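Ribosome-binding factor A
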Amino acid sequence: MRIRPEKVAHLMRREVADILETRLRDPRLTTTVTVTDVQVTHDLSFARIYVTMMGERESRAAGMAALQHAAGFVRRELGDRLGLREVPEVRFLYDESLDHGQRVEELLKKIERGEKVEDEETE
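Tokens:
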């Protein structure tokens, strides 16, 4: 029986969120980490885990470094929880879609108020 990558991704998203919340202890993670998406390759060998976290760019960079350092631990925990014969290699990526959405919202509010909107490339 073949396990669908979408099902594994859904299960991984739930379990990784729980692992990050309850099992991972790293002083570099100073804020809550939210798992926004998980994408698994068709052969289940690799998983991209998209996360967001609040805070300044420096604290997010430290948090991402902590997550990359903990990837092996998370993978081992997933193996215990999911019962897969082979657990996908895990890579954490920062999900910038929320940042982009917030920037668009700010620009729309400026336009609504009649303020001048600067092009990011010229700033």
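The beta strands are 33-40, 46-53, 89-94.
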